[in-house]
Amino acid sequence: MKKIQKWVYYCDFCGKRRLSGGAISLHEKHCTANPNRECRLCGRTESLVEIIKKWLAVREEWMKHETHNECTCWIPDNIREEMVKVVNVDAVREDLDEYCPACILAIIRQAKLALHPISIEFDFKKALAEWWAEKNDAEREASEFNSY
Question: What is the pTM of this model?
């Protein structure tokens, strides 16, 4: 019988696991649950902590309107409509210097804007595809301009 001990490394922010310490260290550096992350898309190295604090405060303000009815929690329709006007992807996007789907996802995730009752909807895959299309178009135009 052979007995082998293997170490498992976990991300301090999201709990993702790997068998390689180096791999999880690299993941932690860019993890969307890390408030001091380095973005692989836009290259942002500044902390998102202040923006996250702002949105956590907004979320707490809206949570005051939550009504507990038997075993369910809900928000009256008129307040929910106001909430959707204030808390949406465009509002989060305005807080960033430049548009970056990964940074928006990090803010939504850390400020808990995708959880009940706010439930902000953000299609990361679609936003990422659009971001890459814009970036590729810009690079293509720049290379065409330089070729003349």
Answer: 0.78
